[in-house]
Structures are given as structure tokens and as C-alpha cells.
Amino acid sequence: MEYHNPSASALWSGQAPSLDHSSQILIREYPHRAIAIASSTHALILRHSSTTSDAIANGSLPSLASASARAASLDSNPSKCMVEFSPRAKHLLEDYRPLTPRPIYGTLGLISIGRDVFLCVITHASRVATIRPGETVEKIEGVQFFCLNSSDYDDVVAMDPYDLDTDASSVYGQNLGRRDVGLEHPCLELQKLLGNGTFYYSTDFDVTNRMQDRPADANTFEIDNFDESFLWNSYMIQPLVEFRSRLQRHERDALDASRILTSAIRGFCRSWAIPQTSAPLRSAKTGLPSYLTVISRLSCRRAGTRFNSRGIDDDGNVANFVETETIYWSPSGVVFSYAQVRGSVPVFWEQAAGLLPNQQKITITRSSDGTQPAFDKHFADLEQAYGAVHVVNLLSGTKPGELELTSLYRHGIHHCPLSRPGDGQSRDHSLLRSTEFDFHAETKGPQGYESANQIRRYIEDSADGFAYYLAQESNDAADRNGRSTSPRSRRYIVVLQQEGVFRTNCLDCLDRTNLIQTIVSQMAVEAFLGHRSEVAASDFWSRHANLWADNGDSLSKIYAGTGALKSSFTRTGKMSFAGAIADVRKSATRLYYNNFADKARQITIDTLLGRLVGQTPVILFDPISDYVAGELQRRSHEFSSTDKIHIYVGTFNLNGRTDGIDEDLSPWLCPGEMGAIQPEIVAIGFQEIVELNPQQILDSDPKRKQLWERAIQRTLDRQYSRAGQDKYVLLRGGQLVGAALCIFVKASILHKIKNVEGAVKKTGLSGMAGNKGAVAIRFDYANTPICFVTAHLAAGFTNYDERNRDYATIDRGLRFQRNRGIADHESVIWFGDFNYRVGLGLEMAKDLVRRQDLGRLYENDQLNLQMVAGLAFPYYSEARINFMPTYKFDVGTDEYDSSEKARIPAWTDRILRKGPNLRQLAYNSAPLRFSDHRPVYALFECVVNIVDEKLKDKISREVYERREAEVGGDTANLAADDSDDEDLIGYDAIEPGLPAASSDRHKWWLENGKMPRSSISPPKIEMTAQRTVLNPKRPVNPYTPTDEPDWVNIPRSESRLSSFSSISTSPYEHVNHSMLLSSSASSSTPRKLPPPYDPSALPSKFGRVQIAEELADGNNGGPPPPPPPRRQTGMGGTGSSTTPTTPYPRKPVNKPAPTPFPTTSPDSVVSVTRPSLAKTKSPPPVAKKPAHLVAPISSSSSVNGSLGLEATEGRGNGDAPSIGLSRRSSTGYSDTSPILEGSSRHQLPVRNGNINGRDPTGGQFPRRAITSAGNERTLLPGPVRLPGMADSARRPQPPAQKPVDVSQLKTTAPPPPAPRRSQPVDLLADDDAGREMGGWEALKPT
């Protein structure tokens, strides 16, 4: 049974903290809403800067401080608040009223939820521990969140159980606190978390540090020295701590004395008062009791619930890491302390929650070599904080999952530098030792859990060497007569220090761990008493056991949701039947919490710690701080740099085969075109790594993945084994049934990689099965987040809609920790078997393959068409495909499918990229023939950002000190009613090139010694045919140094250049007058009407237009043609003008015949960027096979030239032309009749029976279109007007006149374009190669 001492328990139960350390919270509504925390001497006043927030929200005031936040999340802006700390005076708080009738016990800080800012204060607390006289610990039992910027939540504060019988609701008026309000308080879950009795604070000493790490006799503490590893409100309190650091010394001391700023730990804390009769150390001087205390501090570095937080991260932080300290104080002037730690097994592993107890599968997510850097860092941190480390591993030696963890643990310890002893010393003298103690095996005998005491003989040598902390009162703590002086005048001196620590772990670090730690604590206390020749009575040990049992229950509730198992034995030393039944009940309760409640708890924890993606801290405004932020932004080049790394990506559908594991994979993993490049990162994705049968689609078998990982490791080691080349280690792997992803990195860059996480998303059987889906791994390389996604999408020739849905499901539903998604990364690479096919018949596709007509195949590629339509992979790009289709082959041959199913050759295996810092260097397939797919690979160059944090902090301090000396460090008087927000916020330029906004204190026009210019007047000119206008080439800012004159002369409206009357002279509209003048003067011939319309003479290429650049004047006076239908895709700017326009006749152009596709090697890669769906309109109907692609296309049609501008970049001078691909083929219109009818009034000139000199027999076929009824009809060949393209007749054509003054102006603009050639040029054709450009390319602005 639990031990209860009536007198001792009555001492702590419900005892409120001292009123000396309490404050009052007040509010003022007018003229500005402000909240004040007032102590007896000072007041901390907080007010939200609404002007700043509104300006930032609507975009009119970009904030310097928000620049870094926008880089992380474009949708979030930090909330700014103004703060003032002043001595309490009568007039200061005369307009304020109390918010609560009860006192508060400090603030935990500020947090921003959406656009609202909340102040969190402690409303209820109880004293639970007295470490020694003058040092107490309180437990937080209730908090409230008050909104700084809105009164909407004033009556939505969650009902306080302590105020049910009081008139607290009257504070808000007519019982607003009791009425039913539909609006839920945004901080309700946070309020429940902070008030659940697991958080503790102290206003007397630094509760985040153990006794050995703080001054022995200090009764004051510096908040700057708190250990942030255990400070759970560090995210919320940090803005106030930074504000405190900017105060003067006396103000800082006053703020600390007010106890307004509060530090909170999470874990357990409790004291037992030991009466003199039971105390092991007796003192005849006083009758005071001794105090035995246990404090557990749970780390917030890798905080989380049981199955959401396992193992280690790249910074060396482990899950459920707890520092537990046993403290004993005696009135005789002796203080004893002993600390030990627990934590998850420090390897990268995960465990999924399940409904069957003890059946949760353990997954190792990183190889031992990839784990070693984080493993070493973890123990290096422990050694630095505690000294030597002795690991006590309690995992089972028979359970497969725990045995695998033990093996990796043993490997890490063996290779850790701390485990290597010095020269000539044994391993017993190393800084890292380990003991494997199979708890279940050792306690299986008749003695039961009592056998756990056998651990003593394994660790007693280390226990003796580690010692303990001991401090004693000095002799000057008593007067000459031997009387004890005041407790506050006592001075302690340190006698002994603890020089090592035991690190105990089991699987959860709860039940087994707590029992063993109880034994270790007892051993330390026994050693302490033994050295003083004292022995403790059984009553003392009973209290000790109960404290440790309560500690185990509290830590277990935090991590697993229930109290600890085996606590009955911990309390009494016996395992009773009732205790066994209680353990069964706790196990069942854990299953419920772990499966249904822990995810919500995890999100609340991440919100409290500020770790959600897009979450920004509250900024307490200080003019100097904003100035420093601006300076750091301007000087970012001094502490930040970029580096280029190479990333190799490969994907392979294995078709469930393993016979290729022993083959040479170097043609795929180490292709010759990579040359001497050794990529820093190698990402490999597999599909169908196991056979996808009904028995395996619901579970994953890691054995196959591990076999292929070893095969890849062997290939990389063999290829890069030369001197000077780095070894690769497996960073992390992941698997979803048949899809697998493994990331290998150079061993030399492991220290640059952090926050490695993995996630999977099932899409098979509506998300229930894993036969289809995606595996993703993300990490931060220096300061650049990178994400890799390998996917296997739905199969089937016509199932492209389902594949689109699979992509959307993965993109939206795949989430990493802290709610981070795929889109929250700077660089994203998708690769895998996407299963998009080629929309052609079998014979036609195979014929194109034989002729290597890749361009024609690509025009019918489903992924190409879906991306053009914006229905899949928006904003992603794919390099030009220079390799043959990768599916489907007869195994072992280069022949495409010859089976009865006769699958059409297709590029099912693809690699896509997104990110401005990615540049693709290679894209090809490899000749591995043991599967029905061919592997595909790509090589990328990635620019990563690197920030020197130490140098940044140094520059920040220097700038702050210099600015403070310049302005004097004045703070705003927030109490004044006429306080102007605009004088308190940070001012940024609203547009690049403009100065920052002005205020009463800051006038930008007076800087650099320049005075303002009141007005300017145009100069007088002598020429009456011209008038003076503002020079459009002058900078927008009139005070920017420039050589441009203020005014220029242009012809008047009645002159021959009267066409300029419609051109704006605004300096914000840059109009190249000289270019228009020269073009208008080139021809003054009268306008001519176009020839009659002849439909038979029009070209028959659907989706392409031919427009001459050199047009003649003319107007038929008829009504304008109707605009073509808008395309419902991501292409913008397709609206057409309603101005009547008429096309001009153009001169014939003799165009060479297009060159057929040659067979080339992929010596270059060209980027092809897809347009995206920009608006949320309904997508256009997409047929199973695009209508305009049904009819065969003549081989003489140029496809090589349809790549777009980027396609020519990869072709050097003199090289043979590469196989060209269409950038994005038009998917056709649902009904093209309005277009043809709209152009029936115009006709292009015919020369010798053809248009523009083209041969009408050159393979032109009539087009077929799908009507609204779904029927095909043949369309006559003719030009098609692109959406949004108006005729060039709209441009004014002034009569010829040579410009005089305008042409003489100096300009910094780019030189004017070269003179037009004498022959007309097709805008959509290649000037050099005679290539043609698709309709989608024509829409791209030049």
C-alpha cells in the first residue's frame, strides 16, 4: 500500500504559494486595449500593435522581422506587441480594472494563435516541495489565456473549477462566463495541458538545473541561466526574456524580484518531511524536520507521446529523456544530491501503435553507420554535463525487436570515442561503459521482482566511482555562542561532486527503468550515509520508495497515458494480486490512449513548444531590435553563404524479382556520364520490391529492402573506393509494402544533416492497403530543407484520373512531424513508377519506337498532358526525355511486351523536381534487364544555404550596442493615450528601391544632408510642335542618384506624331517612345484590305498558329470576330480584347523542310517547366485519348523544333541536333467551331497554291475535334487564334517622322531590339532550325 503520513501530507496538500510572490492582472480597454501584470512595486504592460498587424496582413507594410519567417512559411507573419516595464505609480494604472479577482503567480509567456496574441498566466498553484528552507517548488494547477488584441474571447475563457462558487464571472458583466458560447477558445487544449498537474515552477531558485549546477547557497537566480532542455515554456517566455536582457541592470533586478517571469518544467516533484525520530541524520540544535525530495525534469528537446516520439534525432536528443534527482536536506546543515537519467535507446527507430499489446512492430530507420554521429553527439553531451556515463540496458534478449535494438546499441557503444580507454588502461577506465541486464529474464524466477536487486553487483564499481553531490554549511553559519543564524545567512560550501551518471533504459523507459532507478538511488543514499557511519530506518526507506513510485506514475502518465506498471512492488517491495490486476487495467488503458488520443496530444505539445510548421513567435517591439534585424538582413552575406552539392536519384520497378541483387548495378548507380562527380546524396526508390499479392498488400517485409540496401552499399563502396573519395552510409530507409526508399550520404557530410524524418501514405484500396502509395524522407542539409518522395501510383491504361487522385492524396495527406508537408520544403524530388502511359495504339507506338520518334511519343504521354492541363504535379518540372520508353519489356531482353496482354511501350518511370535551387545535369535509363522495367536515374546540382550562427550572433551584438549608443535606448511610453503606434513599429520600404517610411522621429528625406524639394516645374521649350513630359526612365524615387533628365520632349497631339496622345506620360509606365517612332516611321504607305478568305489555303495544324511579324495597315471595317473559348488550365492571360482588329496580310516565307529525328545520345538535359493550375475553375474534359492526336501526323511535321527556348540551350554550336520534344502539346479544344467561324472573315495570302510558300501536300491532314455532343467531326485546316491574342492592328501606326529629342536621351535601359529583318518571321517558329512552337509555348510571355 501507499505510505501516508498524516502530518506530512497535511503540510503540502492545497497550500497556496506565498502572496509575496503573486501579482495582479489588469486590463484597459480604451483608448487602446492593454493588459498589465502588476506587482506591489512595478508593472509590466503589454499591448498588441494592431496597426502593424493589419498593415502586415494586408501587405502594405512588409516587416523586416518577418522576412525570415516568410522564408519558412509564406502564410504566417509574426505578431508584434509593445511592452513597457515601469515602477508602479498612481496615474500609471488608474484606467485599468482587474481581469480576475484572484492573484496570479506569474506569466508563462506569449503565444500567437492565428492572428490573435494570448498572454498565459498561472491562476492556481499549490506548493508540493521544499528542497530546503527558502527553496520551494509549486505545481501548476490552472492557467488562463488572455487575448491582447481582441475582446472576442473575454467571455470564452474556459470555466475555472475553482471559481464555480464565486462572482468571477461578474468581471465580464452579465454572467458572461456562465453563458453558453458557441465560440471555442483557441487555447483550450493548451490550457488543459498546462493545468493537468505535470508542470512545476519555483520563484526561489533555478528549477531547471540540478543542485550541483547552481550556486550552493544562492537564493536568487538569473533567468538567462536556465537550461532550455528542461524549460517547457521557453518558446512562450523567450520574447520576454529577450526584452529583459535589453533592460538596464536595476530594471532587470526589479523585474526578477517581481517574480512576473516564470519558468516551468514538466515531470515530477514532491517532498516528504522526515521527522527527527525517523531522520537518518539527527540534529540536536533544532527540531526542524528533514526533507527528502525527488525531482524529475522531462526534456522538451524531443518531447512527445509514446509512439510519436521514439529513439534519437540528429542533434543527439532522445525521446522521453528525464533527469531525476534525489535530494536530502538535514537541519544539521548537510545537503545531498544524486542525479541519474533515463532515455530512449539512442538509435533511429520507430514503433507504430497497435491494438494488440506487445505486438507493436519496431522499425529501424537508419543504419548503424548513419546513426553513429548522432549517437556520439548524444553521449558527448551527457559526458560534458555529467561526466562518465554507465549505460544500464534492460531490454529483453529474446524478443526480436528489443534484441535488434540491443545489437545496434552495442554497436554504437563499441564505436563511440568515449568507450575507448586511454593509453595503457583497461575498458573499465573508459568514459562510457555498458551493462546489459535482461530484466524479464532476471526476474522470472520464484523471487520475482526482488531479483532486480542483482543489478547492484554489476554497477557497484561505477557507483563508487561516480560518488554524489554533498554540500555543508560553513563554520561562519553560526555565531560565537554556537547559536544558529538566520537561514538566509547560511553559506554552503561544496564538499563532494558527482562525477558520473547512470543512464538507464528499457523500451519505453517507464516501468522497468523506474524500478531499477529506485535501486540506484537507494545505493547512492546508502553510500552517503555509510560514509557518515549512519543507517536509515525502514520508515525512511518506505518514504523513499513511495516517492519513486509516485515519480514513475507521473512520468508514465505523461508519456503513455497511465500510471507505471510494477508500482505496487516499488512501493511495498512485494507484487500483490491487486497490483497485477491494476497492471492489466493500465495496459488496456494505454492501448486506448496510444491509438486514439496521442496524436492530438502530440499536436498540442508541438504547439506549446512552437514546433508546428508556420508557427511564429510573438515579437515584443523595440526600435533597436528592429534596426538590428534590418541590419542583419542587409548584411546577411557576411554570415551566410551557399554551397553546391550533387544529388543522385534513381528509381527501379523490380517486378518482385531478386535475381538481380548480385548483378553489377554500376551502369545504373554509377553511369559514365557522371564523370568524376561523386554525389553527396544518393536517393534510391524501388517499386514492387516484393510481389504484390493479396497476403502482402497490408504489411511490409523489410528483408527484401535490406537485401537491396546492402547491394547498393556494395556497389557504391566498390565504385568510390579510391583514395580521396568518401564512404557512403545509409542515412535512412523506409518501406510501404512494395515501395521502398533509401537515402545514402557521404560520411563526411553527416554533421551537416539534421531533422531526418520519414513518412508513408497508402493509396491502394482507398488508403487501406499499401500496394500503392508513397514513401518520403526529408531532412535539413545545413539550412536547406530537402524532401524525397518515391511513389507507385494506380495502374491501368485509362486510369490517369485515378493516378491524379493518388498524387493529390499523397501531396495533401503525407505529413512529417510537426505537421510539415511535402510543400514545406525548398527542394522536392518525386520519383517512381507513376504508371502514366502513352495514348497511342500498340502498332503505332511500336512503329514510333522503332523509328526512335520520341517527340511524337511524348506528345501523347499522359503525364505530359495531365501536367499541361494542371491536373497533376503542378509547379513540377521534368527534364527532356532522351531515352526509350522504360515499360514493358520481356524479361532479359530489349524487346517490348510480346505477351497476350501486349502492353503499349510507355515512360512509366519518371523523375520530377521542384525548387529554384535545383539544376538537373542528367536524365537517362540504364540497361539492366532482369525486370520488365528499365531503371531510370537523374543527377542534380543543388545550391544549399549555410548560415554561420556564431558570426551572426556576434554581428547582432555589435550592431545592437552601436545603435543603442546612437539613439540612447529610449523606450516608448505605453501609458500615454496619445501613443502613436506608427512611432513604435519597425519601418520597412514598401517597395524595393524606396526608403523606409517616415515618422516624427525619422525623416528619410533629411538623411545624408539632403533637404526636401517642394515642387518642380517643366522647363520652357521653343519648339511649338513638341510638349514636355516627365521622363519615364527616371527612377521612381526622385532622390535616387541618376543621370536621367527630369523632362523630355515629345510631339504634340496635332503633330504628325499625334498617335502618342494615347500613351501615358506617367513615370510608372515605361514606354519606349524611340522604338515606336522608328517602327512607325519605317512605312507610311496607305492601308490595304486583306485578300478574300480562302479556307482551303489555311494550314491544318491544330493547336498552332502562324503569325507574321511584319504587318501592313488595313481594316475591313467589319465587326470583330468572337473571342475563342478560354482554356481551363493553369495558363494565365488568355482573355482577348474586344477592340475591332484585323489581321494584316503577310509576305510569303520560304521555310526549309523540317529535319527528321536523328538518333542521338543524351549529352544534355533541358528543363521543361510545366504550367500549373492557377485558378480553381473546373478542369477541361480530358478524353482517354486526346482528340487532336487521333489522326496520324505527317513525318514532315517538325517536332524537333517544338521544344521551346530552353531546348536550344543544351545544343552546342556545331553539334548534331538532339531529339526534340514538345514542351507541352495542346490538349485540344472541346469545340473549335467558334474559332474557325471567327476567322472565316480573314484570309492569309496564297502563293502558288499554298500559304507562305509551304507545300500543301506536306503531310497535312484534316483535323478532328470533339463536339459538345461527344461526336467527332472533321475540321477544315486553318489557323487557330490563340486565347488572348489580338490582332496587331490595334497598335497605333503614326506617320513617319524622325524623333529629335527623345532619341538623344541617355538611358540605362537595355538597348533597343535589332532592326527587323526584311523577310517576315513566324513568331512560333525557330529562326535557326525552322522548328515550330506549340500553342502552349506561344502563350508564354517573352
Question: TL;DR?
Answer:
With 1342 residues, the chain is of the alpha+beta class.
Folded structure, characterized:
The chain is an alpha+beta fold and 1342 residues long. 22% of the residues lie in helices and 20% in strands. It is built from 26 helices and 40 strands. The N terminus and C terminus are likely disordered.
Topology, element by element:
Layout lengths: L5 H7 L11 E5 L5 E5 L3 E7 L1 H9 L8 H6 L7 E8 L9 E2 L8 E7 L2 E17 L2 E13 L40 H7 L4 E3 L32 H12 L3 H10 L5 E11 L15 E9 L23 E9 L3 E9 L6 E3 L10 E3 L3 H19 L1 E6 L6 H16 L16 E5 L2 H4 L13 H11 L2 E5 L18 E5 L3 E6 L5 H21 L6 H22 L7 H6 L4 H32 L10 E3 L1 H12 L1 H4 E14 L12 H4 L11 E7 L14 H18 L8 E9 L2 E8 L6 E12 L4 E13 L2 E9 L7 H14 L13 E7 L8 H9 L3 H6 L2 H7 L8 E3 L29 E6 L3 E8 L10 E12 L1 H19 L58 E5 L16 E5 L21 H9 L85 E3 L63 H6 L7 E2 L2 E2 L11 E4 L5 E4 L59 H4 L4
Parallel strand pairs: 4-21, 13-20, 16-17, 16-20, 22-23, 28-29
Antiparallel strand pairs: 1-2, 1-5, 2-3, 3-4, 6-7, 7-8, 8-9, 9-10, 10-11, 11-12, 12-13, 13-18, 14-15, 18-19, 22-33, 23-25, 24-25, 26-27, 27-28, 29-31, 30-36, 32-33, 34-35, 37-38, 39-40
Helix pairs in contact: 7-8, 10-11, 11-12, 15-23
Pfam families: Exo_endo_phos2, Syja_N
Protein name: phosphoinositide 5-phosphatase
Keywords: Cytoplasm, Hydrolase, Protein transport, Transport
